[in-house]
Amino acid sequence: MTRSLLLATCALLAAPQAFAQDRDNPLLPVDVTVVSLTESASRKVAQDRISTSLRVEDRGGDPASLQGRVNDKMSRALSLARRYNKVDVSTGGYSIYRISSNDEPPQWQASQSIELDSADATVLLNLAGELQKLGFLSSGMTYYLSREKAASLTDDLLEEALKKLMERAQRMGQVLGKTNVQIAEVSYGNGGYVPRPMMMKGMAMESARASFAAAPVADGSDQSVDVNINATVYLRP
C-alpha cells in the first residue's frame, strides 16, 4: 500500500470519531466543542389589574315578569357602572330555568351576570359595593397580571437569562481553552400567568340576599414571572 493511500485510509477511519461530538451537524470542525446549556431568570411583580363578576338572581312563578325584573336590575346596574370611566364593564351569561318539580306549581329562577375589570382596585371595589346595594351577588374576584406588563417583564427576563447563559459559556470556554463562543441555537419559554382567584367564591342565594353597605375589601399579591432558555453553544479556540 502506498504512503498516500495509507494516509487517506487513516483519515477516513478517524473522521467518524472526530465529528461524533455533534451527529446533527457532522460537518463541524474537529476543534469545536458543542455544549448544551440551560438558564433561567425570575422576578416577582405586583399584580396590576382586578376583575370581579357579580350576578342578579330572582325567582317567581311567571317567567315573563321574572325576566322583566332581572332586566330592570341589569339596566340600572349598567347605568351606574357607565359612570365609572376607569372600569371596563360587560354583561355575562343570562339564564332562566324551572326549579320546581313537575308535581308542584311552576317556579322559575333567572340570573344574569355583570363583569367588571380595572387597573384601579379602589374604584372597582367601590362600584362592586354599589352594585351589591342593588341586590347583586358576588360570584368571584381575581387579581391578575396584565398581558402588557407580563410581556414587558418577559422581554427583560429573556435578556437577563441570555446574558447569564453567555457568561456561563464564556467561563466554560476559558476553562477548556476555547474562548471563541458562538450561540448556535436558542429556545425559550415562560411560565405565563394565571389569574389568582381570591375572596368571595360565590355565595348561596339564601345567605347573600342582604344588601351590603360597604364596598368589598380585597388585596392583590406579588406574582412570579419566569423565563427559561435552552441553548446550543459552539466553543472554538
If you had to describe this structure to a student in words, what would you say it looks like?
This protein has 237 residues and is of the alpha+beta class. It folds into two domains: 19-48 and 146-199 and 221-237, Translation Initiation Factor IF3; 49-144, 2-Layer Sandwich (Alpha-Beta Plaits), CATH 3.30.70. The protein is built from four helices and eight strands, in the order H-E-E-H-E-E-H-E-H-E-E-E. The protein has helices at 3-18, 63-81, 121-133, 147-176, and strands at residues 33-46, 49-60, 87-98, 108-118, 137-144, 180-190, 196-198, 222-236. A five-stranded antiparallel β-sheet has the order 3-4-2-5-7. Strands 1-8-6 form a three-stranded antiparallel β-sheet, covered by helices on one side. The longest helix has 30 residues, at 147-176. The protein starts with a helix and ends with a strand. Residues 1-23 and 195-213 have low confidence and may be disordered.
CATH fold-level topology of the largest domain: Translation Initiation Factor IF3
Query: Radius of gyration, rounded?
Result: 32 Å
Outline type: elongated
User: How far is the first residue's CA from the last residue's CA?
Assistant: 36 Å
List the total number of helices.
4
* Major sheet description: 5 strands, antiparallel
Number of strands: 8
**Strand arrangement, major sheet:** 3-4-2-5-7
At CATH level 2, the architecture of the largest domain is 2-Layer Sandwich
- Quickly name the level 1 CATH class of the largest domain: Alpha Beta
Approximately how much helix is present in the residues? Answer: 25-40%
Derived structural class: alpha+beta
Order of helices and strands: HEEHEEHEHEEE
Proportion in β-strands:
35-45%
Mean pLDDT, all residues: 82
Number of domains: 2
Low-confidence parts: 1-23, 195-213
